Amino acid sequence: MSKTEDLPTFQNHVIDEIRLLQDRLPEWRRVGPYADHLRPLDPLERREAERLDRLLRQARAAAGERNRERTRRERARPWSEDERWTLRKRVWRERRDRERELLEQREQTLLEREQELARLRAQLDRWLADIEQLAPELHAWCAEQDRRSADMGLTPALLDEIHQRRTQIAERHARELLARADVRAVIGASIGAAGRDPSALARAITPLLIALDPAASAFQQPVVIAALALLCLRDGDIERR
Questions:
Q1: Which of 31, 160, 220, 234: CA 20 to 30 A from 24?
Q2: What is the model's pLDDT at position 240?
Q3: CB of 223 within 8 A of CB of 11?
Q4: Cα dist. 151→9, 91, 145 in Å?
Q5: pLDDT at 214 (0 to 100)
Q6: Within 10 A of 33 (CB to CB), how many other CB atoms are there?
Q7: Is 36 helix (H, G, I), strand (E, B) or coil?
Q8: 212 and 182 in contact (C-beta within 8 Å)?
Q9: What parts of the chain have a pLDDT lower than 50?
Q10: What are the backbone dihedrals phi and psi of residue 32, each rounded to the nearest 5 degrees, phi first?
Q11: What SS3 class is residue 2?
C-alpha cells in the first residue's frame, strides 16, 4: 500500500485482483468487434452494416424509442407519385445518409475499442511493474515484453503470458508468507468469520497483514494478498490446523 493510498482503496484493489485471478475467461479473451488491431479496416460490408444497424436499433430501443416511432422516423417523407422523376435521387440520398449513420456508429465502436486498449495498456504496465518489484531478477524479461507490446501491440497471447507469469510469482510469495507463523495466526483468526468467501477473507486480513510488517514489499502488492486468500481457501491447510 502506497503512502498516498488509504486502506479501503487498497482493499478494493485486492478484491479486484481476486476477481482477475478467478476469472476463467479474461476480458481480453472475449470476442468483440474490431478486436484485431492489426487488421486494416475495409469499407462497410453487408454483414458489418447489418451488425451496426442492429446495434443502432438496440441503442434506440434502450433509449425508449418504440417501433411505431422508428417507422415514422424512417418514413418521415413517404413516396409521392409527383416525385417519380426524382425517385432515384431520393434513394441515393437516403442510402448515403444511412451509410453515414452506420459509419458514425463504427467510429463510435472503434473509439470504445481504442479506450479499452489504452486501459489494457495501462494495466499491462502495472503488471510489469509488479513483476519487477516482486522478482527483480526478471527485469530483462519485463523489458523484452515491453518492447514486444510496443512492436506488435497488445495481443491476447502477450497478455496471457504476462498475466500467468505475474500470477505464478504472486502465488510463490503467498506460499512463502504461509510459512510464517505470524501470518498463519492472522489468517487462522480471520478465516472463521469470513467463511469460504475469498473477498471477505482478503478484506479481513489485509489491515492485519500490513500491520505485521509495514515495510514488507509483498504486503504492498494487492495481487500477493489476493493470491494468499485464494491459496488458503483452496488448500484448506489453515482450517485443518
A1: 220
A2: 45
A3: no
A4: 34, 46, 10
A5: 72
A6: 13
A7: coil
A8: yes
A9: 4, 40, 240-241
A10: -150, 170
A11: coil
Cell numbers at 175, concatenated: 506460499
Are 30 and 120 within 8 A, CB to CB? no
Q: pLDDT tens for residues 83-114?
A: 556 656 666 676 777 777 777 877 787 788 78
Distance CA 25, CA 18 (A): 14
**Amino acid letter for position 104:** E
Three cell numbers, residue 87: 425517385
CA dihedral (188, 193, 198, 204) positive or negative = negative
- Cell 506488435: give the residue: 152
Whether the Cβ atoms of residue 179 and residue 235 lie closer than 8 Å to each other: no
Rounded-to-integer distance, Cα 23 and Cα 27, Å? 9
42 phi, psi to nearest 5 deg: -100, 165
Q: What is the largest CA-CA distance in the chain?
A: 91
Question: Each residue of 139-170: pLDDT tens digit?
Answer: 999 999 999 988 888 888 888 899 999 999 99
C-alpha cell at 59: 441503442
Distance (Å, rounded) from C-alpha 82 to C-alpha 44? 33
Expressed in percent and rounded to 5, the helix, strand and coil fractions of the chain are 80, 0, 20
27 near 142, Cβ under 8 Å? no
